[in-house]
Amino acid sequence: MTTTPTPRSFLPLTSAVFQILLSLVDSTRHGYGISKDVAGRTAGDVTLGPGTLYGTLNRLVKSALVHEVESHDLGGDDDTGAPRDDDRGRRRYYALTPLGRQVVALEAARLEQLVSLARAKALIS
Fold this sequence. Notes:
single chain; 125 residues; 3-stranded antiparallel β-sheet
C-alpha cells in the first residue's frame, strides 16, 4: 500500500531543488532557461551544472512536483525558456504542479523562520 506524500514530507529541500522550484513559480521553462534564471537571480552564486539540473528535474517529475509541458502548448519567443518556432520538439519544458507550489512555499516559510531565528541571535541584521 502506497501512501500519498504530504507537502511537508518533502522538506527540507536541497538547494538545487529549491532553486529549480523557485524558478518555475512564475514561468514554464526549459532546462537552460531554469539554469539562466537561477544564475541571474543569485548573481552567479548558484550555478546548476547539467548533471545536477537534469537529474534533479527527473526526480522532481517522478515526485510530481514538476511536470513536463508539451512545447506546442506554449507561446512566446524569449530567453526565459519560452519556445521559439525552431526549437519546438527539441527542448523539454517544465512547469510547477500544485503540489510543487505548496512544497516550495513551505520551504520558503521554513527558511524565513530560520533567518528570523538568526536575526534574533544577532547573527545577521
